[in-house]
Amino acid sequence: MVRRVVCRELGPPERLRLETSARVPLEAGMVRVAIRAAGINFPDILMAAGEYQLKPELPFTPGVEAAGDVIEVDGEATGFAIGDRVIVRMRHGAYTDEAVVAPAQLTRLPKNFDYAEGATFLAGHGTAHHALVDRGQLRAGETLLVHGAAGGVGLAAVEIGKLIGAAVIAAASSEEKLAVARTRGADHVVLYSREPFRDAVKRITDGRGADVVFDPVGGPVFEDSLRCIAWGARLLVIGFTGGIGLARTNLVLIKGASVLGVRAGEAARRDPVLGERRMTELLQWAEAGKVRPHVSHRLPLEDYARAMRLLIERKAIGRVALMME
């Protein structure tokens, strides 16, 4: 029997249920993975509430990424063997003890990662990589402003921005969060409650402004970011945890700026070559110890609602993982 978190009615995390069901049969060409950890992501929360662009048919199991061990391989499947430690990529279905997936959904777990780190790596770092490398085309010597810099994708953006050679300004809501951002490479930190961030960015850059803005927050943060950008700036729209932002198009025009939407998963589905290039570079960085998820909370599967609430209430620093026993 297999435990899984199931969404039977749309709503907050508390409406989800932990259920037990029979194992899914292993179909031709598929692989069975014992899930050891699953990552919590904002799309999981939005999907369960019916507020995400992908709307699975009810009932479904949330979760887009996990890590575990290969425990069964169909004879037609290639590339993986029983005992391999792997990262599992899904559109949904990760909050469970085991999953049957195609080999194309698997990536070998970096040797220096544990299961929780593997389960919280590719969604956050993949989004940050696609945003900064493919969409924002961040260059060494430029200034990068990262909003929500202590969140999962925010910390990944700080790490990757520093690897590229940018001067990184990290903005967050507490000193504790900013301290973690510093450990990941932030050159400057901005506490939202201490000083309007647009004033801080102008002060830090001697009035020039940021070349690239990484924004998973939206709302007023997006609107104020338009007032502290350099000529030719690129504003990367990652998400909208703080609400939908409204662009003042005159400010976009005056600065010759670009506003770019970021959908890392969809981009890889439409352009598999781009996705493979991203994956290769991220795994090389991970194996070399240059990037690593910061997992602030590891909770048992039955605490799924509490784990999701940590993201909703902004109490997590970096990533949250569900651990299967």
Question: What can be said about this structure in brief?
Answer:
With 325 residues, the chain is of the alpha/beta class. It has eleven helices and 15 strands.
How does the overall form come out from the CA principal axes?
A: globular
How far is the N terminus from the C terminus?
A: 14 Å
Spell out the helices and strands N to C: EEEHEEEEHHEHEHEHEHEHEHHEHE
Quick one: how many beta strands? 15
What percentage of amino acids are in beta strands?
A: 25-35%
State the oligomer: single chain
Radius of gyration: 20 Å
CATH architecture of the largest domain: Alpha-Beta Complex
Structural class: alpha/beta
Reported for the largest beta sheet, the result is: 7 strands, mixed
Taking pLDDT < 50 over at least 5 consecutive residues as the criterion, the unreliable ranges are: none
Number of helices: 11
The CATH class label of the largest domain is Alpha Beta
- CATH-defined fold name of the largest domain: Quinone Oxidoreductase, Chain A, domain 1
Annotated CATH homologous superfamily of the largest domain: Medium-chain alcohol dehydrogenases, catalytic domain
- The domain tally reads 2
